[in-house]
Design goal:
This protein has 153 residues and is α/β, with parallel strands linked by helices. The chain has five helices and six strands. The strands form two sheets. The protein has a four-stranded mixed beta sheet, covered by helices on one side. A two-stranded parallel sheet has the order 1-2. Helix 1 runs parallel beside helix 2.
Length: 153
């Protein structure tokens, strides 16, 4: 959750919702929040999909997904978060003209994400960037040279 911590500090006018299944990651983020006296974050312990299922209206201007588990073994690829079912889950939670950003540090997963998005009938204006990209703008800061995907609704 280091990138999320950085975004919280750099973009203090935004409200962030972070989801993490590992308590160590949450503990590290809470330490940074306390150290920097930040209040623009809400943390969910567990699978973000459970939270998103409860969102019944467009709520988010942007959704930023930072390095979801790549499940690198072929037999585990079915467990990857970014799939058609997940896109259908998040789509109604993003406001009109909103954005979806996905970052991964696994080239194979980036290729898989690109394929899922290319086949998607619900996301448009796809800026699919496959390759190492460093981005820092008013809307999104990326500290690493991960494989990035940007999608606009």
């Amino acid at each position: 959750m280091d990138l999320l911590g950085y975004m919280i500090i750099m973009l203090k006018t935004n409200l962030y919702i972070g989801s993490e299944v590992y308590l160590a990651g949450i503990g590290h983020l809470i330490g940074n929040i306390k150290k920097d006296n930040l209040s623009n974050i809400k943390i969910i312990n567990g699978d973000v999909r459970c939270f998103l299922e409860e969102v019944k209206q467009p709520l988010f201007d942007e959704i930023v997904i930072i390095c979801p588990d790549p499940w690198p073994k072929l037999k585990h690829h079915k467990r990857r978060m970014i799939n058609d079912e997940f896109l259908k889950l998040i789509y109604p939670t993003i406001k009109a003209n909103g954005n979806l950003y996905i970052s991964t540090d696994w080239e194979n997963y980036a290729e898989s994400i690109n394929e899922v998005l290319k086949k998607s009938k619900i996301f448009v204006n796809k800026n699919l960037v496959l390759g190492k990209v460093i981005r820092c703008s008013d809307n999104l800061c990326s500290l690493s040279d991960d494989y990035n995907v940007e999608v606009m609704i």
